[in-house]
Structure formats: structure tokens, C-alpha cells
Amino acid sequence: MCHHISLSDQEQLVEKLEIFKFQGRDKNGHKVLRIIGKFLSARFLSVDALKNYLEENIFPRLKKKPFSVLYLHTQVQKNENFPGISTLRSIYDVIPNDARDNLQAIYFLHPTLQAKLFLATFGRLHFGSRLYGKLRYIKRIDYLWDHIRRNEVKIPEFVCDHDEDLEGHQILDCGLESDHPRVCGAPFMDSPVTMYSTRCI
Q1: Radius of gyration (C-alpha) of the chain in whole angstroms
Q2: pLDDT digit string (tens) for 145-201?
Q3: Residue 83: helix, strand or coil by DSSP?
Q4: Which of 9, 30, 60, 93 is most deeply packed, by most CB within 10 A?
């Protein structure tokens, strides 16, 4: 589908879906770049569109100060909306060295076993052990607030829904519990989908 949409329209779609957005800070005071993995679909967005958007809107803000990444892996499926290793590698290759040096941590929310295995093998090979060592797997939204300041990051509604499903399967959390209340952002009215929910504030 991306071949039938102009590059500029694809970049506007990236902006509208808020795939890459700076929101809040982590507990160490570093600004957070939130990435919504579900929308990084090769069917809708080309590598060139993603790279252009990042180079114009994101990378210039990453060169001067330390930052962290919050990556939402919720509902990313290999056969549906996973961008592929070649796409990820192409994006990684254009990240400025200063930005790589300033990256402090990658908070990976809702990792699947497949994703962990993938990153433990291909991730180390293609992105290096230095980047892999910055990964922090976060099973549940509740645990996210141990690392990121609450009320400063909007969590999409579909991520909250998935988290609620996990609540019904406590065994997946290996008995771990958290007393932090969940916080989700307010609705984003211009988005083509209902992205945020106020029901868990």
C-alpha cells in the first residue's frame, strides 16, 4: 500500500498517528521518545518515509542530551505489522552517532517470547551488544511507572486493553504484583483511530 501513497503523505501519516513522539521523562530525568510499534507497518509506510521523518523531526532533538525510548510492542504481529529486520536495520544505520551515544535505555513494553528470542539473536548481530544491553523489558503498564514518571506519557487505548487482558492471566506475570494505579492519556481527537482512554486515570 505504501507504493500508492506519496512520500509526503506517508510522513503526514506518521505525524498523525504519533508513531514517534516525545513525552515526559524517565525517573533519571531523561526525556522519553515514545514509539508505537503497531503502526510501523511496511504495508503502509516505506523505509524512506520513516527515515525522512526521523531525520527531519526526531534525530535533531537527540544529539545534545541523554534520552530514553519507550517502545510499545503491543499487538505487533510478525505476519501483519512487523516492519522486518531489513527495515529496522536501515533505520538504525541512519541514526546519528551522537544520538546513539545519548540513548540511555529502551523500555520495551509488552514483549513477546518471540520478540525476546529475536532480539537475543538477530538483535545482537545486527545492532550490537551495546544497544542490546540498554533494553529493559516491561511486562505490564503498572511496572512502567517504576522507570518513567507517571502522568507524563499517554498510553494508547489498545495498549490499555491488552494490559487488562493480562490482568486476567496473572500467571504470565509469574506472581509479580504492583500497587501503582494505571494511567492512560486523554483522547487524541484528530487521530483516525481512538488511541487513548481516560477510563484508567
Answers
A1: 16
A2: 999 999 899 999 999 998 888 876 654 444 333 334 444 544 443 444 444 444 444
A3: coil
A4: 30
Provide the terminal-to-terminal Cα distance of the chain, rounded to the nearest Å: 37
**What is the per-residue pLDDT for 80?**
64
**Size of the chain in residues:** 201
Of 195, 190, 153, 142, which is closest to residue 16 (Cα–Cα)?
190
Domains and CATH numbers, the chain: 7-155 (3.40.525.10)
Q: Measuring CA to CA, how many Å separate 182 from each of 65, 85, 153?
A: 29, 32, 11
Dihedral angle of Cα 100, 133, 82, 188, to the nearest 10 degrees: -70
- Write the CA distances from 75 to 85, 88, 144, 156, 166, integer angstroms: 18, 17, 18, 12, 13
pLDDT digits (tens, 9 = 90+) for 14-65: 999 999 999 999 999 999 999 998 888 757 788 899 999 999 999 999 988 9
171 exposure class (CB count in 10 Å sphere: 0-12, 13-18, 19+) = exposed
pLDDT tens for each residue of 122-143: 877 777 778 888 999 999 999 9
- Residue 27 CA to residue 24 CA, distance in Å, equals 10
